[in-house]
Amino acid sequence: MHADVIVQAQHVQPLTDEPTAPADSVAVTGGRIVAVGRAADLAPLRGPDTAVHVFPGATILPGLVDVHAHPVWGSISIGSGVDLRGADSLDEICARLGKAAAGQETDDWILGYDLNVNAFDGDPSGDFLADRFPGTPVSLMTADAHALVISPRAVEVCGLTGAETFTDASSVEVGPDGRPTGYVVELQAMDLVFAHHPEIPVPTAAGYVRAELERLAAAGLTGLHALDFTDPSEDVYRHLEEHGELPLRIRCSPLVPADSAPEVWEEIARLQGRRGRRWHVEGAKFMLDGTADNGTAWFDHPDIHGENREPLWRDVEAYRAAVHFFTERGIPTATHAIGDQAVRFALDVIEEAGPAGRAPHRIEHIESLPDDLLDRFAELGVVAGLQPVHGTRHTRADATDNWSRRLGPDRAARGWRTRDLLDHGAVVALGSDWPIGPGDPRVALADCQLRRPVEEPGKAPVQPEQAVTAREAYLGMTVAAAYTAGTAHESGRVAPGFRADLTVFAADPLDLAPQDQPGNAVLATVVDGVVQCRP
């Protein structure tokens, strides 16, 4: 039988240390790899209808998978908002917003994303927007996506008083006068503002998502794990598949809201298995705590402001019950746990609940981890889902950033322990938390090796002892990603019988210095055996 497709390069990079024969070609039939070897050895599989793609000098790797991303709301935020990345002063923020406001009506919303809280001298507040944008509702999402800074007019439009109460750790912050400052923290409070944002039609939202997914695929991704499934996710995915094909695979894990009732858990359980051609729902996402930057992470002792001491789930026994609920139904869980106490509690609950089925439980972020928890990930088979780009891009080696100042030197020194977790036998799966982190996997993987932003050679590394090798980094988005999804038997490797999901690089990234990896051209991605050549 002849192959449907043959992809030929200079080298097939297996990534693993297992002995394999040298290979430069991959043959694919029906979306599966049927042979890997030298071009001459695969010649009998080449028929008159076989599509042959030749990439001289290139390297074929297993397709890269980002295990933590937010493709729908991230794309909509980018498509409809002002990019505040790199705006480190209130003047620069206002200048960027001013360009967006030009030509629009005064009462039209201005939305922004990636707001740097270090731009404020003290607690974030929307008061600085009053003089520049009087009468205009402005809503800016912070870089960690766990808070909003909104203008006085937005406070008025949303009817916020500061007296609002929530079942989770959300808050509408107030000043000494008891009036809202415009700092709106965590999801339930943010939802009060989102309800007043302009509605984005599904075709428009789908256009935003299509554009961003194409950019991510062009950077080398063949898949990602969407750790959410909120509206309009399903409508967007279905719209895209009605009008074409997703450029990569998407595994969606819906969020279980903090302190939600069993009726909500039942609804999420019913979503399991819902799918399209390249997207499906699997798993449940929990947020056990918030973020250290806004004081809502759960540590074993408070930060310098007396915050970061409580879980997002006010009733932690409800979290325990929910994890058991999904585990008993064979549904794997992913728990957002940033603080040391949140990580400890999540591990304890997972140990009680036991394995969920084909895919392992996972804990996400793990921003500050004490020594006594390092061994437990391997012991319990829990995946450590890390985004080291948060450490390289949201903190500073001199500890002058908000995260480090709040937590103090001891806890800051235990940040994003990629090296230590690997050395203690944990499976470390790497993600970006896009759009909170850079979506280009080459950038994220270079940062993992350098422990600083790859494009800033003069910047001191953050916890450089936690750096990993190129091989370890790329394993985190291939073999480890497949294990995390419970598909290690059919993805994450270039081998017969496996899915034909491949990334073709101009050069072998394992032969490159970390600083050269972002410039390593992606010549093609292959999903289900479909080759998409990249310019």
UniProtKB/TrEMBL annotation:
<dbReference type="InterPro" id="IPR032466">
    <property type="entry name" value="Metal_Hydrolase"/>
</dbReference>
<keyword id="KW-0378">Hydrolase</keyword>
<dbReference type="GO" id="GO:0016810">
    <property type="term" value="F:hydrolase activity, acting on carbon-nitrogen (but not peptide) bonds"/>
</dbReference>
<dbReference type="InterPro" id="IPR011059">
    <property type="entry name" value="Metal-dep_hydrolase_composite"/>
</dbReference>
<dbReference type="InterPro" id="IPR033932">
    <property type="entry name" value="YtcJ-like"/>
</dbReference>
<dbReference type="InterPro" id="IPR013108">
    <property type="entry name" value="Amidohydro_3"/>
</dbReference>
<feature type="domain" description="Amidohydrolase 3">
    <location>
        <begin position="57"/>
        <end position="531"/>
    </location>
</feature>
<dbReference type="Pfam" id="PF07969">
    <property type="entry name" value="Amidohydro_3"/>
</dbReference>
<protein>
    <submittedName>
        <fullName>Amidohydrolase</fullName>
    </submittedName>
</protein>
